[in-house]
Write a structure and sequence with these properties.
Blueprint (H helix, E strand, L loop, with lengths): L27 H4 L23 E15 L2 E7 L4 E5 L4 E6 L4 E7 L2 E7 L3 E8 L7 E11 L12 E5 L2 E4 L4 E5 L2 E6 L6 E14 L4 E12 L6 E15 L2 E10 L7 E10 L1
Antiparallel strand pairs: 1-2, 1-3, 1-17, 2-5, 3-4, 4-7, 5-6, 7-8, 8-9, 8-10, 9-12, 10-11, 11-13, 12-13, 13-14, 14-15, 15-16, 16-17
Length: 273
């Protein structure tokens, strides 16, 4: 949920993933289905849902994050990070995501500790509230994180929240997205929960019907009783539609303050069937 960038910090833009892509040909069912629309790349979500009865897979192929604090460096590597989505109705889908294997390596002046294992499981329900053909699209996206990771990879606590993606189609192939979100997180001392507020502002530009450039500004304010923390990042990404139901993407996030991980880079793929 938390990442970072530098020379692109003034370019606050993120891709509208396949928002204006070609429709899907092939079978009669696929011919009437909308183009592939994903919640990746970047941290923002999109209001679109998976068509009823269809399944969509969105995953990192690889994902690396680096965070430095004093003489401590933490590297986190995800070896894939799939999100599986199933369309329940024309405006509702359910989603599950988990990293099946990840590595967390912590290096300090006294040595290195490395942990390996499965990540936490996140379950989400997306309900689109607007006409999919409208210029403005809005959805509700409640989610819950189930602690399946061991201590050191996860915090062993159940957490959740709700996001409200808002997408606005603009002229000349631009799409503006806002991503307000409220979370309920476990206190760092393990004795209660507190709020976190998250926001994204991003803009995507379709260079061609297949290729989209992306930029984004992300911020989060954590109200842990042990001490409030603000994180900010500037993120860039790009997506390319190999065919109407197959998309590749890559991106980089760069922290803008000391509380945010210094850098994150990732490569991903999405498909629907």
């Amino acid at each position: 949920m938390f990442r970072t960038f530098l020379s692109f910090a003034s370019f606050t833009v993120v891709a509208a993933p396949a928002f204006a892509q070609d429709s899907v040909p092939a079978t009669p069912a696929a011919a009437s289905a909308p183009a592939l629309c994903t919640d990746r790349p970047t941290k923002s979500n999109f209001a679109c849902t998976v068509p009823q009865g269809m399944v969509q897979l969105e995953t990192d192929i690889g994902n690396w994050t680096r965070a430095d604090a004093g003489d401590t460096r933490v590297d986190t590597i995800l070896y894939t990070n799939p999100t599986l989505k199933v369309g329940l109705t024309g405006s509702t889908d359910i989603e599950a995501s988990i990293a099946p294997y990840e590595t967390v390596r912590t290096r300090t002046a006294t040595g290195t500790q490395t942990l390996h294992g499965v990540g936490d499981l996140t379950l989400r329900l997306k309900q689109r509230l607007t006409d999919p053909a409208g210029q403005v699209q809005i959805a509700l996206l409640p989610f819950v994180k189930i602690p399946t990771a061991k201590t050191g990879i996860g915090n062993g606590e159940t957490e959740g929240g709700v996001a409200v993606p808002v997408n606005i189609a603009l002229p000349k192939g631009f799409t503006l997205t806002f991503g307000p979100e409220g979370d309920i997180l476990a206190d760092s001392d393990g004795h209660g929960h507190h709020a976190q507020l998250v926001g994204t502002v991003n803009l995507g530009k379709a260079i061609t019907p297949q290729f989209t450039l992306i930029g984004e500004f992300w911020a989060a304010r954590n109200f842990d009783p042990a001490g409030y923390v603000t994180q900010t990042s500037a993120d860039i990404a790009a997506s390319y539609l190999l065919r109407p139901t197959l998309q590749l993407d890559l991106g980089a996030n760069f922290g803008l303050n000391q509380a945010t991980p210094d850098a994150q880079v990732y490569l991903g793929i999405s498909t629907r069937f």
